[in-house]
Amino acid sequence: MKEKVLSMVNIDKRFTGVHALKGVNFDLYPGEVHALVGENGAGKSTMMKTLTGIHAMDSGEIYYQGKLFDPKSPKHALSNGIGIIHQELNMMEHLTVAQNIFIGRESTGKSGFLLDEKALNKRAADLFKRLNMDIDPKEILGNLTVGKQQMVEIAKAVSHDLKILILDEPTAALTETEIDDLFTIMKDLAGKNVGMIYISHRMDEINRITNRVTVMRDGQYIGTKDTKNVTKEEIINMMVGRVIYEDPKTQSCVGKDAEVVLKVENLNAGRMVQNINFELRKGEILGFAGLMGAGRTETARALFGADEKDSGRIFINGNEVKISSPMDAVSHGIGYLSEDRKRFGIAVNLSVTENAVMASYEDFEKGILVHEKKIDDITKEYVKKLKVKTPSVHQLLKNLSGGNQQKVVIAKWLIKDSEILIFDEPTRGIDVGAKSEIYALMNELAKEGKSIIMISSELTEILRMSDRIVVMCEGKITGELDIKDASQEAIMKFATKRD
Ligand SMILES: Nc1ncnc2c1ncn2[C@@H]1O[C@H](COP(=O)(O)OP(=O)(O)OP(=O)(O)O)[C@@H](O)[C@H]1O
Ligand SMILES: [Mg+2]
């Protein structure tokens, strides 16, 4: 057996009001992929932030390459061969791809950049070629999809000479092919003896790519297993300390005669939204399935008024409405939970309450005053319902774990009480336990008569939640399935249909 490259022993860390790490252990061999899993707020990101010098630990020891190691800053960790790809993208949207990759390197000029832009682009192009990524080094980063931006961040990390690479939920925004590419890169790095720490809420990935799994719960170390000797159910049980039941829907809960609340006719918006027609009934959960890049988000954004439409008509309760901005959409009772929450969903420098009532603020105004207590009460109610882990509803959102930030965005639209809700990848980055809670809430909403469009790339989720499923491929609707006729195979057939 090789010598361990890393041993973290008894790591302890407190934030105000939160004991985030309670004596956690973690170790890593060279060339190993070691999964770190646990519910939202379990302490995974914090553990990795102590290793990379972002947070100083209160006590504990880190042994790296056989010696005691005290990471002072991310730069210090990186120059010692420990790199991290963060859960939240951490790049400069206004700079080019190549500039983002090489910013702050030794070989840069006074301005922080290599003087020779051309050489910079060439180096980035070589790097992408080696990694089999199709990205233009000269493109402004902010113009790329979240998935592509993530790929740039990955390229940036592996362009350093690393002994340890930490990947904190790297696949949340990637397409299937991008995930395959990432796993190829990881296997290649493993062959070069780089040890990798892999954080993900997607259980199937654990099996595909990791050698060992370490489970954390509530800041505590629960245990470490060889991946090949442990089942998904055992891991989930270690994570949440209980069994989670998954019961897929087998029959629609909505009658064919239920009234149509939303009708979309011949909606067109650019290449990704071509001649979209569908109806949504009262109390229905309509699943939008398809591969990433099929045009589902673009359809939702055009419908919601976030992007411009080329043509098309929208009817709500039988009346034609004009939606040219998100404000129009909200005034017609439509809520949209964006898949790209960092950009459109949350304000990290505001508190949990401020985020929670952001869409419904005026409902809490009384004259010139604002009903603070009501705001606190309703936020507390949803914090409890969605099990948001936070010491107080006045905590700033940026101090919550990634998954808990997402729960707050979901709370925002639930509090707004819209008649029509569009949930775009609602459970991305959400742990298995909280997923069940969110599913239960969605079912409850539908029972109350709210109508839901759920866009999801997880087929199991689509099959479990939808009454009816619309499938998209390359900007068009290619099929529609009643839940009783739906299966993964049937959906995939439409999702890959080309003409
Ligand atoms: N800077 C901070 N200030 C205060 N509390 C924090 C800070 N960072 C994290 N926490 C708290 O520490 C706990 C652990 O958070 P962490 O981000 O490590 O969770 P996680 O396991 O990565 O969860 P997720 O799966 O949601 O990303 C949470 O309760 C979180 O709110
Ligand atoms: Mg995290």
Describe the model.
The protein is α/β, with parallel strands linked by helices. It has two domains: 6-240, P-loop containing nucleotide triphosphate hydrolases (Rossmann fold); 260-495, 3-Layer(aba) Sandwich (Rossmann fold), CATH 3.40.50.300. The chain has 17 helices and 22 strands. The protein has a six-stranded mixed β-sheet with strand order 6-7-8-3-9-10, sandwiched between helices. A six-stranded mixed β-sheet has the order 16-19-20-13-21-22, with helices on both faces. Helix 13 packs across helix 14 (402-416). It is globular and about 70 Å long. The mean pLDDT is 89. Adenosine-5'-triphosphate (ATP) is lined by residues 15, 18, 20, 38, 40-46, 87, 389-390, 399-404, 431.
Q: Secondary-structure map with pairings?
A:
Elements: E1 6-15, E2 18-28, E3 33-37, H1 44-51, E4 59-64, E5 67-68, H2 74-79, E6 82-85, H3 97-102, H4 117-131, H5 146-158, E7 164-168, H6 176-191, E8 195-199, H7 203-209, E9 212-217, E10 220-226, H8 232-240, E11 260-269, E12 273-281, E13 285-289, H9 296-304, E14 311-316, E15 319-321, H10 326-331, E16 334-337, H11 341-344, H12 352-356, E17 365-366, E18 369-370, H13 372-385, H14 402-416, E19 420-424, H15 432-447, E20 451-455, H16 459-465, E21 468-473, E22 476-482, H17 488-495
Parallel strand pairs: 3-8, 3-9, 6-7, 7-8, 13-20, 13-21, 16-19, 19-20
Antiparallel strand pairs: 1-2, 1-4, 4-5, 9-10, 11-12, 11-14, 14-15, 17-18, 21-22
The protein binds adenosine-5'-triphosphate and magnesium ion (MG).
